[in-house]
Amino acid sequence: MKRIVLTGAESTGKSTLAAALSGYYGEPWTPEYVRQYVDALDRDLNQSDLERIAEGQLNTEDWGAQKATRLVLHDTNILSSILYANHYYGASLDWINERFLERDYTLYLLCMPDIPWVADEGQREGPEVREHLHEVFKASLEKLSLPYVEISGNETERFGTAISAIDAVL
Fold it and tell me: 25-41 pLDDT, tens per residue?
């Protein structure tokens, strides 16, 4: 079974593309866990939330994988949690890093920040940070030698590039 990860900075079309690809392939997609976690809070996130977010992200990924036959699409994965923990809190949790390295993700689709920014109160920092975070994601994929394809352009172009990349690993 293949694990395909849509990754990248905030507001780069990951969720939209994950849902479209899920429909195309008839396979499940897993949402980014932190979204539902933040929606359930009556306060701002803080560093004490990092472990619960990581555990929830891993459980969400595993839930999706159990429902898949050929592939599962992850609207981000635990790597996102690792990068954001470092970005926002300068934090690194060894057990999360170890769990990430134990997992086998087949392909990353790195969504480029070339589409309009869409605000999402309580979830997104701002458009001025998006380019920096994109570079952080890309540098991490390269440093870890993880297979990735850049996804850019309009919705149709993104969808076509993603399908070609996924079909190449199926």
Answer: 999 999 999 989 988 98
pLDDT of residue 148: 98
Give the pair of three-digit tokens for residue 6.
């849509």
CATH of domain 2-169: 3.40.50.300
Which residues lie closer than 8 Å to 15 by C-beta, 6 or more apart? 6, 31, 32, 75
Could you write out the three-class secondary structure of 98-134? HHHHHCCCCEEEEECCCCCCCCCCCCCCCHHHHHHHH
At 148, which amino acid appears?
Answer: Y
Three-state SS string over the chain comes to: CEEEEEECCCCCCHHHHHHHHHHHHCCCEECCHHHHHHHHCCCCCCHHHHHHHHHHHHHHHHHHHHHCCCEEEEECCHHHHHHHHHHHHCCCCHHHHHHHHHCCCCEEEEECCCCCCCCCCCCCCCHHHHHHHHHHHHHHHHHCCCCEEEECCCHHHHHHHHHHHHHHHC
pTM: 0.94
Rounded distance between C-alpha atoms, residue 26 and residue 28, angstroms? 7
Q: Identify the bridge partners of residue 148 per DSSP, sorted by sequence position.
A: 108
Report d(CA 69, CA 123) in Å as an integer. Answer: 31
Q: Domain boundaries in the chain?
A: 2-169
